[in-house]
Amino acid sequence: MKKNNGKKGKIVIISGPSGVGKSTITKKIVEMIDEASLSVSVTTRPKSKTENDGIDYWFVSTEEFQRKIENGQLLEYANVFGNMYGTPKDKVDEAIEAGKIVILEIDVQGGKQVKATYPDAIMIFILPPSDKVLSERIENRGRDSSETIGKRLNAANAEIAAAKQFYKYMVVNEDLQQAINECVKIIQQ
Which of 37, 82, 102, 110 could link 106 by a cystine bridge, Cβ 3.0 to 4.6 Å? Predict the structure, then answer.
């Protein structure tokens, strides 16, 4: 990997409730900022038909995930709706040393863990314009059962409240391009 003018990279944490548009926003940020790369998380959840191992996530067994925790290989990890998710520490450190802007799309719990290790991390929380819009977005994804949708909506309010205590930047995703531009501006300042 090429160095970024000899500068050390930085970590950007992007969080928000399910269905708020985090994945779309992070992918667009990576397209717009040359030195930005998205950290690929490790997960125990089943791979969907449209996902690729090592690109969307690193899909592992529960036992393998547990070994990674025990060996200190994860920067952060959390149980989210019954599945484990984590950030591989070695991949993040390599990217930072190479001068990359490493974007972690993780939950608030993970964001707090990363901030403890990397106090200079930029923390951005993506907000929905309203509860109604968030509910519609989650339902329109067609990925979740109505029970899971209900759980995700209930968790959203708690996550938003927690984020207001720990995140410096709050970006409302009402207009997607405007939200992307706002995030890019925050990262590049």
Answer: 110
